[in-house]
Amino acid sequence: MRGLNKYFSIAKASLEVIFVYRAGFAFNMIGTVFYVVAMFYLWQTIFLGKPGALGGFTWPEMKAYLIVAFILNSTMTWFDEWTMGSDIREGRVATDLARPIDFQLKRFAEAIGPVPFELVSALGIGAVVAVVFGGIALPADPVHLALFIVSAALATLLKFAIIYCVSMVAFWTTGMEGVQNARMAVQNIFSGALIPLVFFPEWLRGFASVLPFQGMISTPALTYLGAMDGPTTAFMIGTQAVWVVGLMLFGRLLWRSAIKAVTINGG
Amino acid sequence: MAVKVAIATRLRRARWLTYIYFRCLGQQMKAILAYEADFVILLISAGLVQITGFLFIWTVFQRIPDINGWTFWQVVMMYSLIFITEGVGSLFFEGTWRVSRLVYNGNFDQILVRPVSPIVQVLAGAVGFNGLGNIVTGGALLAISLGNVPAQWTPGRLLMLVILIISAATIRVAINLATSACAFWIKTPWSMVPMFVHQLGEFAKYPITIYSMAVQAMVVVAIPFAFVSFFPTAYLFNMESWSAIGLLTPLVAVYCMFMAVWIFRVGLRRYESTGH
User: Fold this and answer.
1) In this model, does residue B167 exceed pLDDT 90?
2) Domain residue spans in chain A?
3) What is the ipTM, given to two decimal places?
4) Does residue B276 register a pLDDT over 70?
5) Which B residues 205-224 touch A at CB under 8 Å?
6) Distance between B154 CA and the closest CA of chain A, angstroms
């Protein structure tokens, strides 16, 4: 337990950083709200023009889907390829290498620290948007709510694991902005953040189902709505867990081979 | 006679500023091209962002015939205009995004001591090569959607198309310049206000008729993103009751640029060389 204390301190320090830059954080957050509001208007128009369900979604369910997607997208926003890339580019990883801490765990602590604050902010904004647009569908039942929380936690871990792996590219290139944009583009479409995956044609849905990204938005959101039957829900959450473990291990493997290639600038 | 001389002087000055602008930009380009892999990655990522955006619109329209009377290719055109203008902004005028940091660090001094208009220096201060990716893929999407315009392509309409694209890009650059001047009032190391306003562009990706009056007023009057995508598209597709407003786009562009330069100059007078 004592071994974990240091990681807890790192997480706490990382949370405090957000409080220092709270104005920037708030502006960031409000900026993403515009996107969500535009989406709400778009889908509202679509659903009002077509009474009943679309792709198996009713309008209140679609609203719930959009809010869940917004909240999940709002966490872990301060940990990205850019931050880790600049640590690598500017040689700050050298100090990490010299410290008696696990590199991946340290990064995880940094990433998870601000999450409670991000979550509270996103829940607040989400609630306001939901009320303004006339309420959303509630979780199917308490069991699905509990399963949703598990799935959402896994989704956050998955996000970390994916960004961690992609960040390793920084050992070979300095162009992290492009790498990050590419990851976000692929993630947005295949996680179900832009549109529920059921709306896709068969070939695209097949593509999404073999990628890890669906575990970031689609699985938790569909669990919340109770849109999948029992066995499917269990299978999808299990798939999330497998991806988390697999990608975490893969990230460690990448790190081990990367530090052999490392050149520390100014070191 | 005196008027003639004044005009000649102005023209010479404009030519000189253009020359300086492209020289500055050229230096920035060299700096970026030194990192070849970064350059390629940026281009590909910009293309990817648009392809996924296009996939989204396409998927939506698989289920519905139109959004408030706006069809697939009309929405694609709006979307492509947003991306092309964003691309022009990144490729040629990325420098506006550096203003916050320059002012915050007090480094804006170096711009003031040079004998060239600060605004030209700011605009030429950086190059975002992702802009090239945006222009290429956005241009392709625009070309395809233009192919679906029912009207005849007379020379007059073609000319109007060029004018509309230039005006739309001007509006976006003006918005970036005006908001970047906020750095003179609100000192933060990153471009908070510009980013915030930039995000408002999300509303311009879809027909503005889907929004409430408040949102419409915001993107038509307050920060005229609607003139970047919605009104030009309405004009090119001859959408009733909207297309006439599309003709105002060049005027809005001139107005925006005028306001942006004015706001920037007011801001400049407040600059106080932090940290020196």
Assistant:
1) yes
2) 2-261
3) 0.86
4) no
5) 205-206, 210-212, 215
6) 34
